[in-house]
Design brief:
Layout (H helix, E strand, L loop, with lengths): L30 H12 L3 H7 L6 H11 L1 E2 L6 H13 L8 E4 L6 E4 L5 E5 H6 L2 H17 L1 H17 L4 H33 L2 H13 L8 H13 L3 H11 L7 H12 L2 H7 L14 H18 L3 H10 L5 H10 L37
Parallel strand pairs: 2-4
Antiparallel strand pairs: 1-2, 3-4
Helix pairs in contact: 1-8, 1-14, 4-6, 6-8, 6-9, 7-8, 8-12, 9-12, 10-12, 14-15, 15-16
Length: about 375
């Protein structure tokens, strides 16, 4: 851990913070995000093909737009943001510092885009909303996107979304494009969880990361907000309601490129308490020079195991029902009806008070363990 040292190029952190030399993005990537990225990196010529598309995509136009109509961060402009950017690249050992721009927009937002070279854009609304440590986590989040290569796929997503709007009048064409966009959005929501982890590794201040997410959700009123109460919202959101609410959650989530803010906070806190995070902080993490040897099969197996565990431990009514079906629970028709209608009773019993030969009436469903840890479903 090193203090800022201008004689060594000015890239050391401004306060004591652990540096992760040679860290691979696999160290912090969400399992679903990591499996997709590992597979894509294994495709011969994949990067070349996508970078060739830069001639078809509006990337050059975007670069010129930000250069001409935004403020480029440097030692002369927004110097404090420039220091944070270099700090983040130093901590994650990203050799080439991506250009960053501040764009006039009251909506708090940040993004990392680009096929050939990533660029980071933050809005004035975000700069004015967050304090230094909260902003440091956000910039670390965007640098995490750059290290993972997410900027390439984010640019493709923006391009395809634009195409979908243009061909909306062509039924089959729109369906085909929107199917791809929906799949990309699901992947990108997981990539946002990955980048949140990168932001925590850069800032190394969980409370600052939590505060930043709360402010994005509720504005600059920290004296009116509480981290524990904010996290309790995520728990209530996941386990509350019946199957109708579960379906509405899915419908609300589908058009979004980011997970809901309370869910992001809960997921980040859970990861900060995990053995994986502690191992990284102790200096035990995968190196990027080992990326070429990573097994695609193992990565997909880890992703599948994550989703299976998410279903098994989820408090969401739909996910619990899926877990029951996978576990071979009986009277699935009755369970489906009861969960969807919000009833707690079972199917009507026969004359002898039994159903399907089972003794006694069908009673309320056996409650699940209320202490089982929650997990965001897909």
């Amino acid at each position: 851990m090193t203090e800022r040292n201008h004689e060594s190029g000015g890239n050391a952190p401004s306060r004591q913070r652990r540096r992760f030399a040679g860290i691979s993005s696999r160290a912090y990537e969400h399992p679903a995000d990591r499996s997709a990225l590992v597979a894509l990196r294994k495709l011969s010529g994949f990067d070349t093909v996508f970078k060739t598309l830069s001639g078809l995509l509006p990337e050059r136009s975007l670069r010129l737009l930000f250069l001409s109509d935004s403020v480029r961060v440097s030692d002369a402009q927004f110097a404090h943001l420039n220091d944070m950017l270099r700090d983040a690249c130093y901590v994650l050992d990203l050799e080439k510092v991506p250009p960053m721009y501040v764009n006039q927009d009251p909506q708090p937002n940040a993004m990392c885009i680009g096929l050939d070279e990533p660029i980071i854009v933050v809005t004035t609304g975000l700069v004015e909303l967050l304090d230094e440590e909260e902003m440091r986590a956000v910039i670390g989040h965007e640098v995490g996107h750059a290290l993972s290569g997410h900027a390439v796929y984010r640019t493709i997503l923006l391009f395809l979304t634009g195409i979908a709007l243009k061909v909306a009048w062509i039924p089959l064409g729109n369906v085909a494009i929107m199917a791809i966009v929906t799949a990309l959005r699901e992947w990108f929501r997981k990539s946002e969880l990955s980048a949140d982890r990168a932001g925590l590794l850069v800032g190394q201040d969980l409370q600052a990361s939590m505060r930043g997410l709360m402010k994005i959700a509720g504005g600059n009123h920290l004296h009116e907000m509480n981290v524990d109460a904010f996290l309790a919202q995520a728990d209530e959101y996941e386990k509350g309601g019946d199957l109708r609410d579960s379906v509405l959650k899915i419908l609300n989530l589908l058009p979004r490129s980011h997970p809901f803010t309370t869910v992001r906070a809960a997921e980040l806190k859970k990861w900060s308490e995990s053995r994986d995070y502690q191992r990284i902080m102790d200096g035990h993490y995968p190196r990027r020079d080992e990326d070429k040897d990573t097994s695609v099969t193992d990565s997909f197996r880890q992703s599948a195991a994550h989703y299976a565990d998410a279903v098994r431990t989820s408090k969401d009514p739909l996910m619990k029902l899926v877990g029951d079906i996978a576990g071979g629970a009986g009277d699935l028709g009755g369970k489906l009806r009861d969960k969807f209608t919000g009833q707690t009773g079972g199917s009507p019993a026969g004359k002898d008070g039994a159903t399907d030969g089972s003794p006694g009436p069908t009673g309320p469903e056996e409650p699940r363990n209320p202490d089982a840890p929650g997990s965001q479903g897909s």
